[in-house]
Amino acid sequence: MGVAHSHSASEEVRELEGKTGFSSDQIEKLHRRFKQLSGDQPTIRKENFNNVPDLELNPIRSKIVRAFFDHRNLRKGPSGLADEINFEDFLTIMSYFRPIDTTMGEEQVAQSRKEKLRFLFHMYDANSDGRITLEEYRNVVEELLSGNPHIKESAGSIAEGAMMEAASVCLGQTEPDQVYEAITFEDFLKILQGIDIESKMHICFLNMETMALCH
Amino acid sequence: MLRAALSLLALPLAGAAEQPTQKPESLGEPLPGLELFRWQWHEVEAPYLVALWILVASLAKIVFHLSRKVTSLVPESCLLILLGLVLGGIVLAVAKKAEYQLEPGTFFLFLLPPIVLDSGYFMPSRLFFDNLGAILTYAVVGTLWNAFTTGAALWGLQQAGLVAPRVQAGLLDFLLFGSLISAVDPVAVLAVFEEVHVNETLFIIVFGESLLNDAVTVVLYKVCNSFVEMGSANVQATDYLKGVASLFVVSLGGAAVGLVFAFLLALTTRFTKRVRIIEPLLVFLLAYAAYLTAEMASLSAILAVTMCGLGCKKYVEANISHKSRTTVKYTMKTLASCAETVIFMLLGISAVDSSKWAWDSGLVLGTLIFILFFRALGVVLQTWVLNQFRLVPLDKIDQVVMSYGGLRGAVAFALVILLDRTKVPAKDYFVATTIVVVFFTVIVQGLTIKPLVKWLKVKRSEHHKPTLNQELHEHTFDHILAAVEDVVGHHGYHYWRDRWEQFDKKYLSQLLMRRSAYRIRDQIWDVYYRLNIRDAISFVDQGGHVLSSTGLTLPSMPSRNSMAETSVTNLLRESGSGACLDLQVIDTVRSGRDREDAVMHHLLCGGLYKPRRRYKASCSRHFISEDAQERQDKEVFQQNMKRRLESFKSTKHNICFTKSKPRPRKTGRRKDGVANAEATNGKPRDLGFQDTAAVILTVESEEEEEDSDSSETEKEDDEGIIFVARATSEVLQEGKVSGSLEVCPSPRIIPPSPTCAEKELPWKSGQGDLAVYVSSETTKIVPVDMQTGWNQSMSSLESLASPPCNQAPTLTCLPPHPRGAEEPQAPLYPPSDPHPSFAFPPSLAKAGRSHSESSADLPQQQELQPLMGHKDHTHLSPGTANSHWCIQFNRGSRL
Lengths: 215, 895
Hints:
The structure holds 2 protein chains of 2 kinds. Chain A is mainly alpha-helical. Chain A has 9 helices and 4 strands.
């Protein structure tokens, strides 16, 4: 938060704290970064992410950037993409990666886990119809494998294998003529039961003093 | 068992025998001249004893594991120590003096390296690096803390007068003792924790600590030892500084040595393509060289081997052959387990030697209490600090297990034996104390840790099979986290891991991996591949009836002539993997089963491994029949993939693939089928045969074998497109293989090959007209690195067969000399080695294949044309004529 409007800002920060669960210190750091990304604009557009050099090598870069603008992740609607996001939206996205608080109750932990998985699910589900179809899955796998041109072509069969696996997990014994169309969110939760999200979708926002190094 | 008893007897006798044998020699000269029997014990003594010890240890292990109940309650290490005590007692009673100690030299040079290499090589590297911070903290800070506090507290105990005054030791002596007794021992930890099955994080922290603390232990021990030898008065401030500096030198130097050797090892294995047989040896040699080099430079040898194993694994595994991989794995495990067994047994035996130790209750009790207390305190303090930074904090239960799991073992014992009695007057007391501490931690803590873990309800490790979905999602997580760190501008762990992976992919892997391995190197792909192999194996295990993971059914075995079926199935089941499943063997059984055999063959081809052939080269010492396994794996994988893929498409999605090429042919083919059926109404079996041969790879065609014609035509109507597409693909492959087998075999994946019988048996030729169909689908099944070759050969075949009516028959008229009715009985081709030139580089073979296939096939076939001339017209109008041919032929065979 700039020094100029620190007065009203403190209230704003407190509001954001309540909404996203970040501490004021973290919010300030994130805001600094936000400014850096947006070039001192109040909002970030997709193009701004091009300025992050490290992101370029990420194979699923486009999917991730897209997730930042997804209305579902921003809790603004069932579908569609935002053109630009403001700082609050940015924080909302970031809050998906907040470590689970140790003081939280069982229910809250489960809730938070679900939220995090929903973020992932939305990334797969490109057309926002609440289901991951084979086509969508294949897209993701293709991007994941895009680093290696030699096996990229097998993305289709890998996606199909994964889909079959999903089908067998979700439907149990399948009949030969049964049609498994797409993965719903419930199925998605079932598939990911074995993974402890607690260590997989978290980032320590504690020490961000290295921030200056980047850019 | 008899041998066990013998060897048990032999050992003490061997020890005892030494004196008596000398006496008669000195008393009277043995008669010179020819000896009928000569006893040369001394010439073989040393290796013989080593072998006997290992044998005893191994037999003891077998005995322990006879009872499941005992081993589930008592860790093996405890049993071995107790056995060692008993054996030591026997030796002592017989020889009147303690023999066979755990010699520090033997221990450090021979017994320890295999264990460390094994643990380093099979360390789950991802888990290790994810927890590296915690592991390093516990290993460095924890060990330092333990050493100093224990040493200082013991000194305090002495000052307080609780240790008998005959223990002559100053502060430095106690610090020296503290340094050697404080380190958690990797051997003991591994032995106990492997049986406890705590969760992975907990295990890797305790175990990683025990491996990495070696550097600290070595440094502390050496520094203290030299201080003691110099005398405390002569120690100067610079010496302390040197001590601190040496900590870095020893640890980083050891790690560097390990990494250098890992690099060398990976690089060497890249070029072993022609000498696969030495691959496992290289792994062991270079790892051992790393150990010895580090030892030579008095760096941390354990760290060196750990880093070597950890660093090289990824590349070595990618480079070496499948067989070598298995060999490395088993040899490593065998050596490690062997060394561990011997260590614990010798520990037990060494304890019996009372001449080496002197007892002081105050010192022993004090040490026991202090190491337990300070370990617990250290763990709690460090964990508190660490938890500030950890995403998943270590809770109290974890801390209890970590404190309690701090086992001391053979390293401490070997180090205390190494002390110099003249410089450290209290050595005997220290030895006794160390023995007690080691025994206490291994036996008491080892015994109780399992119930404790159960009682505390420590999170256990859950063994779930890796699934493709999880692997995919984990990768996505990694990328997301790295991306978010990028966006936030926070260079955290994920950022650096991502960086490292980029670097590895770009430079290291390219440098250290074989090009063929590098190209398909990907974790997702690996999991996918492994799952497919697993499915294929489970498919085989279930007798080929059910595809396990999806519950799809496969073409049931030919149920008509059940005798033939069961015999083949039984053969398959009983003979297991090493069996010769080649139908050439079965074909020689001269009966009317040939056709069943052919069906079985295709079933096996589709669902099982490639029939193994005995290679002439297999008796060579220097070469193993190369790549057979890899090719087989790939093949199984392919077949399975094909099945999965097709069944998935057709059953799950009901996707019908429209193909421009097969479509116009389809109707023709179906008519053929119908015509066939009509024409051969009297002999429905022949028809069944043709069709099964053609579609045996289909997943849903259970009823394909049915005798009734109606069901068959129905079936075809239901899924005509798929049916035809598959049939063609297989025929195509067959045509191709029959060409490539003779001409230019390559280490590529060979699609189901026809038996020689089928090549010759004429009913096969009924499919000739199908060869023109080119299924685009098949390309999907071929691994990418093979696809260019595949496509080439496809296109060459396609062009070959492009004028369908004229050319197609030639493709399948391959049966070179159909000698009428005697054919089925004739043993066909001798099972000559069909892959004479396996060493062909894939690229070469690939390029060459399509060429040679088309070029070599054509003349051959043209030569054959006149032979079959009178039948050519029948081939031109495929369906009915073929069946006539078949009938004729079969009649012949039935005679």
